[in-house]
Write a structure and sequence with these properties.
The protein is mainly α and 122 residues long. The chain has 5 helices and no strands. It starts with a helix and ends with a helix.
């Protein structure tokens, strides 16, 4: 019983998910900002050309979105600092928040991999 209560309090993913979704929506929902962000990623020769949208319909998309934001976190911070909008990404500079974000990113990636393996080749 005690372990269940501990896990429930330790695994509160909603604040992290909300922050990531807000960050992605900040980049993707404004056409000009989105184009500038893609151009910025191209100019810094990033491995990725964009962030992914999150959709509540498919929970698996959370893992992909978290992983992409994690891999682009330094570029996202640089982009918002360059635009003088540091408040938009301040959580990406908070070590406690980053450790929660890293944990949930890893957890969701493992869940995605497990889901794919369970589906099989067909």
């Amino acid at each position: 019983m005690h372990q269940d209560a501990l896990c429930k309090s330790a695994l509160n993913m909603k604040p992290v998910l909300d922050a990531v979704v807000k960050l992605v929506n900040t980049v993707r929902s404004r056409g000009l900002t989105h184009r500038q962000f893609r151009d910025f990623l191209q100019s810094v020769q990033s491995e990725y050309s964009d962030v992914l949208y999150y959709t509540k319909v498919r929970w698996i998309s959370a893992g992909c979105v978290f992983e992409r934001v994690w891999q682009l976190k330094d570029d996202i911070v640089s982009f918002f600092h360059e635009k003088h909008c540091s408040a938009e990404c301040e959580m990406l500079e908070d070590t406690q928040w980053l450790s929660d974000f890293a944990f949930f990113t890893d957890l969701l990636c493992h869940m995605n991999n497990l889901n794919v393996k369970m589906q099989g080749k067909n």
